[in-house]
Design a protein that fits this description.
98 residues, alpha+beta, 3 helices, 31% strand
Length: 98
């Protein structure tokens, strides 16, 4: 999982679509991020498709080399129309400290 910070807000993007962690966040509404021994609890709020394009663009700018294959030839340089087209296939969650 690659955590994205955009304008001071943190997001988790699901490059592979509706995976188990996405389903878990939708049910539980929270989760935990672990980095080494540090564990941070957080609340997760799903972003609607209309709000995703700038987040997906920033995510692809940072992580395209790792996850680009899951984005149907869409890149950080793609149009907002293309980003909106793929938005339903890539759940995005805003995280905030619990």
């Amino acid at each position: 999982m690659n955590l994205l910070t955009l304008d001071g807000t943190r997001y988790l993007v699901a490059p592979r679509g509706e995976t188990q962690w996405v389903r878990n966040f939708r049910v539980a509404g929270d989760g935990a991020l672990r980095l080494g021994r540090h564990i941070e609890q957080f609340q997760a709020a799903e972003i609607d498709d209309l709000g995703k394009p700038p987040i997906l663009r920033a995510y692809l700018r940072l992580w395209k080399a790792e996850v680009g294959v899951f984005f149907e030839r869409v890149s950080a340089d793609s149009s907002d129309i293309e980003l909106r087209r793929i938005a339903p296939q890539h759940p995005v969650f805003r995280t905030s400290s619990a």
